[in-house]
Structure formats: C-alpha cells, structure tokens
Amino acid sequence: MIQFLKDKSWGILNTMGFGGSIQLFLESALKQYGWFKTFTSGQSIDAAGNPIPWYTYSFIFFLEPRLKPHFKVFEYGSGNSTRWYGARVNDITAVEHDKDWIEKISQKLPKNAKMLSRTLDETYIQAINTDEILYNIVVVDGRKRVKCASYAVDFLMPDGVLILDNSEREWYQPAKDLLEARGFKRLDFKGMGPIISYEFCSSVFYRENNCLGI
Q1: Positions of the chain with pLDDT under 50
Q2: Is 44 in contact with 81 (CB distance < 8 Å)?
Q3: 93, 74 contact by CB (below 8 A)
Q4: Is the Cα torsion angle 89, 186, 166, 130 positive or negative in sign?
Q5: Do the bridges between strand 72-76 and strand 113-117 make them parallel or antiparallel, or are there none, so unpaired?
Q6: Non-local CB neighbours of 98 within 8 Å, separated by 6+ positions
C-alpha cells in the first residue's frame, strides 16, 4: 500500500510537471555538488559550504587532483576561487579593480594569497608583471579578458597553462585565436556550475609537457 501511494504521488507530481524538480532536490548530482546551496546563497561553495571556483563542475573535478603544492597561480579576478587555490598551491596572487569587493574578500584570504588593487586600465592588465616572476597557472576570469590573456601568456612557465572562464562568449574569440596561434591547444569543459542553471564553458590552454599532465 505504501509503495502504491508513493507511485501515485509521483504520478501526480509528474503530471503537474514538478516531479523532476523535486527529484533533483531530493537525490541528484546537483545536490551532491551543493548546487542548491549555491543557488540560494549566491556563493560558489560545495555541499559542505567550502569555497570553490565559479567554473563548470566538470572542470573543477578535472583540475583539483592535478594541482601541486609548489604551484604559483595568478588570477585576473578574485573570490572563492582565490581561497580554493590558496588551500592547494604554494601561493596565489589576484588582481581586482573593485575596492569594496577587495575589502570584503581580503578578510577571508589565506596567508599565501596576495591581492592587488588596480584601476581598469593598463595597470590592471599588466598587474601580472608586478613581482617579475613566472606562473604555473594564469586564470583569466576578470575584466578585459582578451587583453589580459594576450599580455599574460608571456608570464607562464614553460609548462604553464592558462584558464579562460566563460569561454563560450563570442567576444572572447580573439583571445582563443591568439593563444592557439601561440601554439596552445584548448580543452573545453562545458556544463553547469555553481549558482546559475544554464550551461557555460571553462577552457584550459596548454602546450606539450604541461604542468597539469594533459
């Protein structure tokens, strides 16, 4: 009888168009990933409430086991991704233009993370040259992404990779063309990610013998 009532209830919900949504909330990969928490909180976090990058889930799962403790990372743009990298690599430097956001996120950063404040001009684009070092990973996920990718490519280690988030956007095509002209191959990770419900793409650009072992 109990099973009959369950089947009947699900039949009614499916007829009304609510069955799929309820099933996703009760038991699904989205629940396992913590997507519903990200949607309601507006924060990029996992199921346990820990910070994660605002990349596609497929790319997060691909990238995390490939990070090494000695890596140096530079980010255009900052947020929970900065905290996430900071817990996994030697050091991370991020550049931001929004002073209010800098004040908010800086309070949560680990000791191996450094925040650079720059206005949205050439100093923002060239912030990666502040310490005159090369990086294992450069993340282009802030403003002026085409110009940032073009400038930052020269600050990668020989085995370094560049990550371009939201790479599905047509206006970032010049960045993709430039990197491929410089000898980089591209690996796209399309799908859902934290907070939003629509598909987007996170891409990694790499060369032979790269630090991620692609």
Answers
A1: 1-13, 16-20, 23-25
A2: yes
A3: yes
A4: positive
A5: unpaired
A6: none
| Closest C-alpha to 9, from 21, 23, 19, 24 | 19
- Dump pLDDT digits (tens) for 130-159: 999 999 999 999 999 999 999 999 999 999
Cβ neighbourhood burial of 128 (10 Å; 0-12, 13-18, 19+) = buried
Cα 160-139-72 angle, rounded to 5 deg:
50
Beta bridge mates, 188: 203
| CA distance linking residue 116 with residue 114, whole number of Å | 7
- Which tokens in the block code for residue 16? 């009304």
Would you call 117 helix, strand, or coil by DSSP? Answer: strand
Structure tokens at 90: 């030697």
Torsion 55-208-133-69 (CA) sign: positive
pLDDT value, residue 25: 47
Helix pair angle (145-152, 173-181), 10° resolution: 10
pLDDT score at 14: 52
34, 41 Cβ separation under 8 angstroms? no
C-alpha span between 138 and 76 (Å, rounded): 8
Q: What residue type is assigned to position 213 of the chain?
A: G
- What is the pTM for the complete model shown? 0.87
Query: 171 — alpha (psi -120 to 50), left (phi > 0) or beta?
Result: alpha
Question: Which tens digit of pLDDT belongs to each residue from 30-55?
Answer: 788 888 899 999 999 999 999 999 99
